[in-house]
Design brief:
The structure holds two protein chains of two kinds.
Chain A lengths: L2 H25 L4 H26 L8 H8 L1 H34 L5 H8 L1 H4 L2 H12 L14 H27 L2 H10 L4 H12 L1 H17 L2 H6 L4 H11 L1 H28 L12
Helix pairs in contact in A: 1-11, 1-14, 2-14, 3-14, 4-8, 4-11, 4-13, 8-11, 9-10, 11-14, 13-14
Chain B lengths: L3 E10 L2 E11 L4 E5 L6 H9 L6 E6 L2 E2 L10 E4 L11 H11 L4 H14 L15 H14 L4 E5 L7 H18 L2 E6 L2 H7 L2 E6 L2 E6 L1 H6 L4 H6 L4 E9 L4 E4 L2 E4 L11 E6 L5 E3 L9 E12 L3 E8 L8 H5 L2 E6 L11 E6 L5 E4 L1 H4 L5
Parallel strand pairs in B: 3-8, 3-9, 6-7, 7-8
Antiparallel strand pairs in B: 1-2, 1-4, 4-5, 9-10, 11-12, 11-14, 12-13, 14-20, 15-19, 16-17, 16-19, 17-18
Helix pairs in contact in B: 2-3, 2-4
Classes of the chains: A mainly alpha, B alpha+beta.
Chain lengths: 291, 374
């Protein structure tokens, strides 16, 4: 559950689109440097994974899944995983529900605002999570003017908000790219000339047309929230990454086994995404002529 | 099935005037084309009618009801877009059904209607295809079927045939005409293709620089264009420079020869004017033909262009044949002759051409008029 995994997911998404180009390339023969780069990348990514697996599951003489079962049995594992999944799902839904309509309206009615929105969306890259954690703690933390953390009902709101902001750069870009690939204005006009209200147009015409963008935005938001550590740790939320770090301190082998689990969850997501991407019909780009 | 009135429509984009003072009434079931070069305001006028742009001035009235402020989705008009604008995530069938679903028609009725339209437009075999799996012609048929499925009072076609190839274009043209007649839908067709406009419209609105240049039946627009712009824009037209001798009696002069031209009545005396003559009305004269009354131009065949049934001769006037005719000197005269007899006038041969002055339109020379304030 990290940025690399998210990047790989995007790669998988575009993979099918690039197939045609790849075929063309194959015909002219794969250049040797491509194989070298691919090989080096594979080593770079696979060696740590392999090392983790060996460390977690091998006693030096025998191979054992016991650390994995120990990890699953830990009450902290289930609670933290459940908490992280909840935060990630809510964040994902929130991000899509806010960003998709916003980006659509901007693209359709206020194209001049696009650069401003884009700038706002990349702010999390400028303000690191550590600064954000301190800032949020000052305003919403314990003994602060608006104490959200002390209140069990309100506490999640703080992290939802934080995660929403952190996922903005990925979510906005994925959705915005998808919107720009279809002719939003003409599709909207076609739909409204058939009598559809703006909301119906958005839900039945625009959303399905940008479904690939929405899926990748969802995956990026989900993995970002799932793997987020700084905000959760500093503001005191016992999420899965926080639990993993603690576990690594007490029981390094169990911790490593759980890291493998988290990798598997991410990959399940990537595979599901690729499957959806392959099955989505009518992803052809439709453009209107000059008006 | 509606009477559409556009009243004094005006629209500016920044300091550009897109449409000015546009007034037109379109009758029930009438097919009217907006014809003009790009940037003449035809698409803007259509978009104002559809409700996609708000006019700065004027009103859109349908069946006596002012709908200028009504949003596009409440106007009940069908629209077909230049680039089809089919919903990429829906099959042909689902595209056509969309408008009916929006109107909450019962499922049985929807299926019947869609099947009927797929049949009508010859699309039965592509009902389950997605837009990217269809040819351009099929996509445009789906777009047409989708627009008429909701039985719109007014159908708006924005250059619907510009993206399909020539053969399909002709088929679709006939289909549109047949459909409009059959369903009696009041229709506006925006096009820059004059043959399209002339072939299927009840009336043609020629537009230039945001304003109506001329409105008339295709026959009127072709045979009796009121302005040099229309004359030049529609079909090929020869412009032959003459001088008005008498505006009262309609007498013009060219190369020292005076002839009666009823079209010149009312033009300022002594002023330069243009005789407008279609290439098919100019007549090559046989050797030794007797010239009575009409003007003739002597020239040499520069180019022969085969057009099918006819062949167009481009004839360069010989010096001294008709006088100091600057405009014919600059542009060769186009003369259409039956292809079967085109061999009589090979490239390089000389001939005389009779200009039927009596039946020709005469207009004041716009290049001379341009200097004077309008």
């Amino acid at each position: 559950m990290n940025a690399e995994a998210a990047e790989e997911a995007l790669e998988a998404l575009t993979a099918s689109r690039l197939e045609a180009r790849r075929t063309a390339r194959r015909r002219s023969g794969t250049p040797p440097w491509t194989i070298v780069v691919l090989g080096l990348s594979a080593v770079y990514f696979l060696v740590p994974l392999y090392a983790t697996a060996v460390f977690a599951l091998s006693t030096g003489k025998a191979f054992s899944l016991q650390p994995l079962f120990d990890g699953f049995g830990d009450p902290g594992f289930q609670a933290s995983l459940q908490l992280s999944l909840t935060y990630s799902i809510v964040t994902t839904v929130l991000a899509l529900a806010v960003v998709a309509p916003t980006a659509y309206v901007v693209e359709l009615r206020y194209p001049q605002l696009r650069s401003t929105i884009e700038f706002l969306s990349v702010l999390p890259f400028v303000v690191p999570p550590i600064i954000m954690a301190v800032g949020l703690g000052e305003v919403y933390g314990i003994n602060s003017p608006i104490d959200l953390i002390a209140n069990d009902q309100l506490a999640p709101i703080l992290l939802y908000g934080g995660y929403f902001v952190l996922t903005l750069p990925f979510v906005f870009r994925a959705i915005d790219n998808a919107l720009r690939a279809v002719d939003v204005r003409v599709l909207t006009e076609a739909s409204s000339s058939l009598g559809a209200s703006p909301i119906r147009t958005f839900l039945q015409v625009i959303v399905p047309s940008i479904s690939l963008g929405l899926v990748s935005a969802a995956l990026l938001a989900f993995t970002t929230a799932m793997g987020e550590f700084t905000l959760a740790a500093l503001l005191g939320y016992p999420t899965f990454p926080v639990f993993l770090l603690n576990e690594n301190g007490y029981e390094p082998r169990i911790g490593s086994a759980l890291v493998l689990v988290s990798f598997l969850i991410t990959w399940a997501g990537v595979i599901a995404l690729a499957a959806i991407a392959r099955r989505t019909p009518g992803t052809q780009i439709v453009r209107g002529g000059p008006m | 099935m509606s009477r559409l009135e556009l009243v004094n429509i005006g629209k500016r984009f920044g300091d550009q005037t897109a449409v000015r003072d546009f007034s037109l009434t379109i009758d029930d079931g009438e097919l009217v084309s907006f014809l003009g070069p790009s940037g003449c305001g035809k698409t803007t006028t259509l978009r104002i009618t559809a409700g996609f742009e708000a006019p700065d001035t004027g009103a859109v009235v349908v069946d006596g009801r002012n709908i200028t402020d009504l949003p596009a989705n409440k106007r009940g008009m069908g629209m077909v877009f230049q680039g089809y604008a089919l919903f990429p995530n829906m099959t042909a069938r689902e595209n056509i059904e969309f408008g009916l679903a929006v109107r909450h028609r019962p499922n049985g009725e929807r299926q019947t209607k869609v099947a009927e339209l797929l049949e009508l437009f010859g699309l039965a075999h592509v009902g389950k295809s997605y837009p990217h799996q269809m040819s351009g012609g099929q996509q445009q048929r789906v777009a047409l079927a989708r627009a008429v499925a909701v039985q719109p009072g007014v159908l708006l076609l924005d250059e619907p045939l510009s993206a399909v190839d020539a053969k399909v274009r002709e088929e679709l043209r006939t289909e549109i005409r047949r459909m409009v007649t059959q369903l009696r839908i009041t229709t506006i067709l925006v096009t820059h293709d004059q043959s399209e406009a002339l072939s299927i419209s009840d009336r043609v609105v020629v537009m230039n620089r945001g304003a109506i240049e001329e409105v008339g039946t295709p026959g009127q627009i072709y045979a009796e264009p009121a302005s040099a712009f229309t004359a030049g824009f529609i079909g090929a037209m020869n412009e032959i420079a003459v001088r008005v001798v008498s505006g009262a009696q309609g007498v013009v002069e060219r190369g020292g020869k005076r002839v009666t031209a009823p079209g010149a009545v009312g033009l300022p005396e002594g002023g330069p004017a243009l005789l407008l003559v279609r290439p098919e009305l100019l007549e090559p004269l046989g050797d030794g033909a007797v010239l009575n009354g009409d003007l003739t131009v002597k020239g040499r065949v520069e180019v022969q262009t085969f057009l099918g049934a006819t062949t167009r001769l481009l004839i360069r006037e010989l010096p001294g044949s008709g006088g100091a005719a600057a405009s014919t000197a600059a542009r060769p005269l186009a003369v259409d002759v039956p292809s079967a007899s085109a061999g009589r006038w090979p490239t390089g041969s000389e001939l005389a051409v009779r200009i039927p002055v009596g039946s020709s339109r005469v207009i004041a020379d716009p290049s001379a008029r341009a200097a004077a304030p309008e």
